[in-house]
Design goal:
Length: 270
């Protein structure tokens, strides 16, 4: 069987995040990628200059077109900017019932806000309960719980437990924006807690890291992996993609991770 995944997200014209990053990740991990575009952004490595949301009708039509024909095993949901779009996606998920990785994209790496403030409650109420894994970073977890940004692992765990109460099967709190030599993500499922520590990679090439990690988890689920295995493998993939990002020369700002680090650039031979 062909492993197939679907990304529901915004388009990044710079190619480092959103739909583009998700499809690159799926392909790099041996998964056929399908896509539903929720918004078109004008952005590059230095920031977002414009956003145009697609209508809920065309978002739902894309979902129905894909899922009525193609055997998608897992879905990653990323940028969903408006209440109406969230409602359309939630209705589609109730109908089609697939494993969902929800990456609550609220603020871009550049600091640009990507989610309407009034849409936060809709995200909590309508999409979080559909997720098999929710993947917030520290700022997103704080926005979703209404608390201050966690400053230690104990606070990360408490916010993760609060998010579990909103309905997802598991929550992966990402510690990449914290300080220190180690970057630790924490996976909670209501019964167990697992830490995923990695040595922090100091680089400006980190555009699209959240999208890439969530897409890699989705790819693992599409292949039939359990959530813990999918998270562990996704962490390894993202870490390697960040370590190799310096091999790329893309833009003047925060460059993308190297999704295809296993294949190119090929070292020169004499």
């Amino acid at each position: 069987m062909t492993a197939i995944a679907l990304t529901i997200a915004g388009s990044d014209s710079g190619g480092g995040a959103g739909i583009q990053a998700d499809l690159k990740t799926f392909s790099a991990l041996g998964v056929y990628g399908t896509s539903v575009v929720t918004a078109i952004t004008a952005q590059n490595t230095r920031g977002v200059t414009a956003i145009e949301n697609l209508t809920p009708r065309i978002v739902r039509a894309q979902i129905d077109a894909v899922l009525s024909d193609i055997d998608v095993k897992a879905i990653k949901i990323g940028m969903v900017s408006t209440v109406e779009t969230i409602d359309a996606i939630a209705a589609a998920m109730r109908h089609w019932r697939r494993r969902v990785v929800l990456d609550p994209v609220m603020v871009a790496t550049s600091g640009d806000r990507l989610l309407d403030p009034e849409a936060i409650d809709a995200l909590r109420q309508r999409l979080l309960p559909r997720a098999i894994i929710l993947t917030p970073n520290l700022s997103e977890a704080a926005l979703l719980t209404g608390r201050s940004v966690a400053t230690d692992e104990a606070q990360m765990v408490r916010q993760g437990e609060e998010l579990l109460d909103l309905g997802p099967s598991a929550v992966l709190i990402k510690g990449g924006h914290a300080g220190g030599d180690m970057s630790t993500d924490i996976l909670l499922d209501g019964e167990t807690m697992r830490r995923f520590p990695t040595r922090r990679i100091v680089t400006r090439h980190d555009h699209g890291t959240g999208c890439t990690l969530a897409a890699a988890i989705c790819a693992g689920l599409a292949k039939g992996k359990d959530p813990t295995e999918a998270v562990a493998d996704a962490k390894d993939y993202l870490t390697a993609a960040m370590a190799a990002a310096g091999n790329l020369r893309v833009g003047l700002g925060r460059g993308p991770v190297h999704h295809f680090h296993q294949w190119w650039p090929v070292p020169q031979t004499s």
